[in-house]
Fold this sequence. Notes:
Blueprint: H1 9-16, E1 24-29, E2 37-43, E3 46-52, H2 62-74, E4 92-94, E5 97-103, H3 115-131, H4 145-162, H5 166-180, E6 187-190, E7 199-202, E8 205-209, E9 216-219, H6 220-231, H7 241-254, H8 259-285, H9 299-310
Antiparallel strand pairs: 1-2, 2-3, 3-5, 4-5, 6-9, 7-8
Helix pairs in contact: 3-6, 3-7, 4-5, 4-8, 5-8, 6-7, 6-8, 8-9
Amino acid sequence: MAVYTEVSDEALTTFLAGYGIGTLLSYKGIAEGVENTNFYLHTTSGSYILTLYEKRVRAEDLPFFLNLMEHLAARGLACPQPIRNRDGVALGELCGRPAVIVSFLDGVSVKRPQPDHCRALGRALAGLHEAGADFGMRRDNNLSVASWEPLFRIAEAQADGVSPGLAGRVRADLAVLQPNWPRGLPAGVIHADLFTDNVFFIGDDLSGLIDFYFACTDSFAYDLAICLNAWCFEADGTFHRDRGAALISGYEAVRPLTEDEIAALPVLCRGAALRFLLTRLVDWLNVPPGALVQPKDPLEYDRRLTFHRGAKRAADYGWSG
């Protein structure tokens, strides 16, 4: 989440007139994240999130995201719901950008997840994978292994200015991952971006999942690998095996991993770390002037890759068999 496109009071009031959600009382930009422009809306009928789609989100992908949220909610997953306008349409346009209003979920994200949080996340992630099993749409993962070389070329010339030797480390990772990327694993709808700020808790209970705008069709174990990266490391690259064990056990309590998925986990975790290093690096080097945005540090994932390069088995991530 971020603010790239400024929205005037007049433009927003005109846009909201097409919805039956009451009168606008207040709104403010949300600076967290890096992908889309987001505002918190408070109206006489409640609270909502307004998203204007920017950057990597393609307009033709929006029906997939919006229909997926409705599908998952219908199967009991707590996630935002698109608000349809008076004509029954969820997708609109505001300030020249595709725009959607979604329901607001109560809860807070955790800054320092503990094993119990990770266990709850694992169960929710597996529940998402199962709930999406009969979703009728497909979207390829346009940030999977085939995209990493083109992303690297965008940033390669400046990479060593961010960290000495970074270009060489990325090039070495690509040389290992591209020919060894796992194929044919169990697959379906994945979230693909389930960081701590996209998961809400009320007390100790997981209350919802948000931000489905990277959701796609890919291997379930890759989604788990993304979560192991996002939830089980410190910023300095220290891996917490107890969090990893809790995350994996929570997941397997709902959907046991296959032997092939278990064997592939170290490569998937390394690849997930490289994917986020590359997209963060490109964003770090290309923040638009004047944008209200907080780019995320790509070097967090450079440090995590140090751990992944030495990990050879799923047990290194906490899997206990």
